[in-house]
């Protein structure tokens, strides 16, 4: 007879896997390590997550929800002026990447680990690409509200800034990341005329 999972088992597994995947990468973390660190049995893990892809998808979905909420809060806290909102978006990312333990962007990290993923049915890559597309759409919408002469170019430049923030967080020391975050906000202000 199958054991009934204790309340919170699924959450404990997902929380453990999320921490490990972000800190070490998805490829580096096997299911046995998640089982050991979550303090659960193999059967219980597989009751909640049939495959590692299911677990990775839920991890990225959780990150996507949290990132979307953080972006929404940053935009809501800014003036209605699209310039202020673009600066707020970059500043929010700057604050995120300067936190202790930041390894950059969970979505970009996943896509770097699995560059060939993205075929139909690859749920983790779909979540990652979906979030990145959503953020680019927010930037493009705000740039469109500016009435910029070349909105595609400005959108690309601003997305390059955010890409750079996440990239340097993955491999630079804390002082460099803080300096880069400050520079990114200043550059954004110049680009949007804020």
Q: Fraction of residues in helices?
A: over 70%
Number of domains: 2
Mean pLDDT: 92
The total strand number stands at 0
Report on this structure:
Residues 7-67 form the HTH tetR-type domain. The protein is mainly alpha-helical and 194 residues long. The protein has two domains: 1-50, Orthogonal Bundle (Arc Repressor Mutant, subunit A); 57-192, Tetracycline Repressor, domain 2. 75% of the residues lie in helices and 0% in strands. It has nine helices and no strands. The N and C termini lie far apart (65 Å).
Record the SSE blueprint.
Layout: H1 9-24, H2 31-38, H3 42-48, H4 52-77, H5 82-97, H6 106-113, H7 123-146, H8 151-171, H9 174-192
Describe this protein with a few key phrases:
single chain; 194 residues; mainly alpha; Arc Repressor Mutant, subunit A; Tetracycline Repressor, domain 2; 9 helices; elongated; Homeodomain-like_sf
How would you summarize this macromolecular structure in one to three sentences?
The protein has 194 residues and is mainly alpha-helical. The protein is built from 9 helices and no strands. It has 2 domains: 1-50, Homeodomain-like (Arc Repressor Mutant, subunit A), CATH 1.10.10; 57-192, Tetracycline Repressor, domain 2 (Orthogonal Bundle), CATH 1.10.357.
